[in-house]
Amino acid sequence: MSSFPGNAALRLPTPYLLFLGDSVEGGYAKTAFGLRDWAGDKCIAEYRLAPGTVTAGLPMMSPAAAYAAGARALVIGVAPSGGGIAAAWVPALVEALEAGLDLVSGMHVRLGDVPQLAAAAAKHGRALIDVRVPPAGLPVGTGRKRTGKRLLTVGTDCALGKKYTALSLANAFAERGVDVDFRATGQTGIMIAGGGIPMDAVVSDFEAGAAEVLSPDAAPDHWDVVEGQGSLFHPAYAAVSLGLLHGSQPDVIVVCHQPGRTEILGAPGYVIPSLEETVELNLLLGRRTNPAIRCAGFAFNTGDMDAAEAEALMDAESKRLGLPVADPIRGGDAFKKLVDNCLG
């Protein structure tokens, strides 16, 4: 990322100890997994509490052991619904401050608003760093057509690969010599990229304006690959998705999906929409600010499938839908076809 519209470039203390709390749902550990996969050189260990079962596959270390091994910050790597800091986590976070680690959080709740953390940080001279803080002075969206090209990742649900897809596409564009920036819209993406705007922390009236600030006018051949958030079908998070869709004004969308998922994450009883319905709704609403919007294809998260099964499914779905279907992490010819169609 060559520039940082919105938040200034972050300077976070590294390496990290990734804190997984007491989570038993991997879908809420996007921050830990994202940092492991895209900033792995900065992650040396993980720390979790009972009865937590989620792991990033890193060595388990206490805060003191991690500090001795070189860690300089504990990053809260889980983001449960609502973005709160659980009371059960506080003693472990205080332990980290006492061990010499700064705290980095992408939660909605500010670290300094937790009295025990504020007191421990002051006592031990440690920093409390909140990433999920939007810049001041964001404008209301205008809908004005901007120069440059934009791609937005959208999804059938939240937490299924929109960030990974955007990062993979931005890297693939760059490898082809395309002038491109990854535009981060969530706390993990911001930690990876070093800047961005946490869209779900922006007041709704300024959501589209924030997306306009994030992806400003650019050269005609420049691409902004914008990290998507939530889903238009999520009963809680659709507002963020719509503001981002209108404000980013994408020329291209890529629909992200996890085969086998049947219900919206965190909303039992709400079924996952079909791929066709997802394309239709995103294009219908996206045309409000960019009548030329198109869908270039689909990104499947097939991490829980073997290679042959994943390839067969994606090939069949590509033929059925008439567009490229690929897993950006698996790569291969299918992903090359998706990149071709995005740029084409």
From TrEMBL:
Residues in D-glutamate N-acetyltransferase-like N-terminal domain copies: 55-134
Occurrences of domain D-glutamate N-acetyltransferase-like C-terminal (ranges): 140-332
Organism domain of life: Bacteria
Protein name: Putative NAD-dependent epimerase/dehydratase family protein
